[in-house]
Amino acid sequence: MRFAVIDLGTNTFHLIIAETIDEKFEVLYKTNVPVKLGEGRINENIIIPVAFKRGIDTLKDFRKTIDKFQVNKIRATATSAVRSASNGQDFVSTAKDEALIDIETISGTEEAALIYEGVKLSGAVTDLSLIMDIGGGSVEFILCNKESLIWKKSYNIGAARLMQQFFKSDPIADEEKQAILYHVQNQLQDLFDICEKYQPKILIGSAGAFETFAELVFRKNNQNIVIDALKTYDFDYDDYISTTLKIINSTHLQRAEMPGIIPLRVDMIVIAALITNYVLGRLQINQLKLSTYDLKMGVLATMAGF
């Protein structure tokens, strides 16, 4: 059985095609395209025309690839940018008409549950942990252990949203950092309350920005490690902190020249570092893991019945 998973993120569209054999799976093809669906006016809840077109064109290309691989089942999920946009349903309808792809716009709660399934599949959850997934439109937090999901919530504090609202200077100004952290603090009070009760000691970062952090650490330490070959990675905490402080204090040009930061994340990685460091400090967590499996792998796991 061949499955195609399309993850329509606020920044990036992903396609994975996998084949299941004897309750295991093999990834036959994967790609991602920096569609930037949330470009320009995400906080006004609209997909601008140029981003709308990029998204539809990308889905048409995905459809050709899916047909070439003779896929049996397709599931396409749209997250924050589509579910919050006033023209999000127009995008879904156009995708069906022009790309022949049915898009399911999932809630933040559903998104968090699928992220949990993906991270669990990677083997990253070995103890009581807090999973964090930083998207362009939203950030999901999932409190869990190896056996079960305890609590989950999605917040509209994604990197693209905060960047468009607060990030105006180069490098980011102290008052902009403070405004971001004040906003995040006000949004996340119920997260802090539940973590006060359960006291997780491990933060698991789900793909995305956390893969960029790992890439930068590898290069800093001259480690020849390929992210795509990993399911999980345990950060050295001091390495992580020094790497993210360098990111936060750098200019746009300095970040653009750092090997390991893809063009799409050159500015948003600053927001991701600020939020992650704030959460680690606020919850007094000093163990950080990467799971390269995220929502799209969670979708695959549920489709294939893993």
Helix run count: 12
Outline the low-pLDDT stretches: none
Tally of DSSP β-strands: 11
Q: How would the global form be characterised?
A: globular
The H/E string reads EEEHEHHEHEEEHHHEHEHHHEH
- Mean pLDDT, as a whole number? 95
Distance between the termini: 13 Å
Major β-sheet strand ordering: 8-7-6-9-11-10
Strand composition percent: 15-25%
Coarse structural class: alpha/beta
What multimeric state do the chains show?
A: single chain
Radius of gyration: 19 Å
Characterize the biggest β-sheet.
Answer: 6 strands, mixed
Could you estimate the helical fraction of the residues in percent? 40-55%
Describe the structure.
The chain is an alpha/beta fold. It has twelve helices and eleven strands. It has helices at 49-68, 80-84, 88-99, 108-122, 159-166, 174-187, 189-198, 209-220, 237-249, 252-256, 268-283, 295-304, and strands spanning 2-8, 13-21, 24-33, 73-78, 103-105, 129-134, 139-144, 149-155, 202-206, 232-234, 287-291. It is globular, with a radius of gyration of 19 Å.
